[in-house]
UniProtKB/TrEMBL annotation:
Family: Belongs to the CUT homeobox family.
Superkingdom of origin organism: Eukaryota
Record localization: Nucleus
Entry keyword set: Coiled coil, DNA-binding, Homeobox, Nucleus, Repeat, Transcription, Transcription regulation
Biased composition (Low complexity): 7-26, 47-66, 267-277
Annotated Homeobox domain residues: 421-481
Gene that this polypeptide is encoded by: cux2a
Region (Disordered): 1-79, 180-203, 266-289, 509-548
Residues covered by the CUT domain: 72-159, 298-385
Composition bias type Acidic residues, residue spans: 181-191
Protein name: DNA-binding protein SATB
DNA-binding region residue numbers: 423-482
Amino acid sequence: MQTTGEVSVFSPPSDVRSVSVDNDPVIQKETPEFHHSTGKEEALNESSSFISGSPASSSSSLSVQSFIKEETDSGDDEQEFDTARLAQQVKEALQRLNIGQRVFGHYVLGLSQGTVSDILARPKPWSKLTSRGREPFLRMKHFLSNEHSIQMLSVIQERLRDRSSDDVIRNILDQSRLEMLDDDDEDDDDEGSRCQHSGDESHNIIRNILQQAKHEMQTQTPAMNDAPVQQEEEDYGTLEPSVQSLADFVQSIIQKVKCEINEDAEPSVSPSSVSRSFQTLPADPGQTAQGFKMETRQSCELQSLHLDTFSITQRVKETLTVNNIGQRVFGEEVLGLTQSSVSELLSHPKPWTKLSLKGKENFIRMHLWLQDPQNIQKLNAMKKTDHRARLKRALIGSECDSQRCLDVGGQGFCDRWGQCEAMKRPRVILSAQEREALIAVYQTEPYPSQHTIERLAAQLGLHTSTVSNWFYNYRSRIRRDGFSEPVQTRIFQNPTGCSPVSASLVRLKQEPSDGEMEDADLQREEHNHVSVGVQSVKREKDEDLSEL
DNA sequence: TGTAAGTCAATAGA
DNA sequence: TCTATTGACTTACA
């Protein structure tokens, strides 16, 4: 999971700020001293209290955030910490108070549960940490030294556990309504009050916007296309008010356009009712003069459309987590995507400027979903329906199992509809050595020639398509992860620790090309090295390679 | 035809 | 049962 790596020592990341207890409906409802802030900006303000939130309560309940800031300002950076001991103390405290790593990570460190777990389980020595790496430990140290903060977190955890989902929904709805009022105030009071804000009505709006976006892309001048690449923070958008208000502005446009169209609401924004392909979108909506006017307006506004993809994904993740909604349900009902695609989208949001139209559609959907005051309610309803459907399918499935039989040819199990499991091609899992070899070649030749791919495939005992796919995917993920190495976790460790493949395969790159003399002995030797790793993985062997 | 972008299904791990 | 990862695939485009 992607963590909020942009966090600076005293500036909690956007996700932390936006889900501070200030905005936590659970806490606000249950604890009198927690007040709603008067507006979003206040909630986003770093100086706003982290737990107490309200200025009225700041004197009595010192916030974790402000406490951390004050304490760390005193120059703890100069000290040498025993990180292992610190981690142990935190673990004990969390255990004692029954506080989960997720809550601790989210509210105190601004990190995901996975990262917290890693830090607590394997704390690096202080001297080995960079200033960024030291930050969580500073936060932990200050957290531990303030009993009040600990108690507050305990309260948060308790509230989160105890609250029924209905209360959570109700509070989130309240919060959404407040935000809507804020938006409307900023935008246009009259319009805002006239327009009924409903996610169900956004189908046509998305359609029109996307259609216009496509049109705009097609008619863009070369100068626009050749615009210099913006810095990454600009790509992702920032929490600068101007950029944030742009997203809000887009939302207000959508509302206004909906009012102007005055069309009947679509039954649902569900992706099942919306084509995921721009190519199949309905015809131009602006057939009338008014339609054309509207189209022109949208067209102008779309030129400045820029959603903060990172912020959107953070907010979606928070909302899903708080409301215990899985990526699967969210993906299927809101985006029309599978869980894995949702996971990728949420964990590795691409900058808005790097997205294709199709990619932008997902973020527009997420943005609209976040704005929908009934989003959680709808998804929970879907969840219940989905659960019943799955139970039913499971029941039917168990009945079907008894009807399964071995097919005549012994190819594998077939169900009563004749679908054979044996037809499925087993998934290729590359060994650590193979991966290492591929990376080694990538480093010298990120775009390998067909000749290189074939030789690499032969030496590794892989299909050429597997090798070329690997290069496509690796390049793609390098780009996605910001030009650093993509995460490679599923590595079959070589027990010997040796990696004879990479060196020899780098050498492969320097070998003579087709038609030139080859070192057959070296080739065999390399192949033998590779075979060690190959034996441990399940995959289909290239038939041609059997000749080797 | 090769590449980028987007996506899925299988899988691992918690 | 959940999320993250990754090999493979589809589509659009130059």
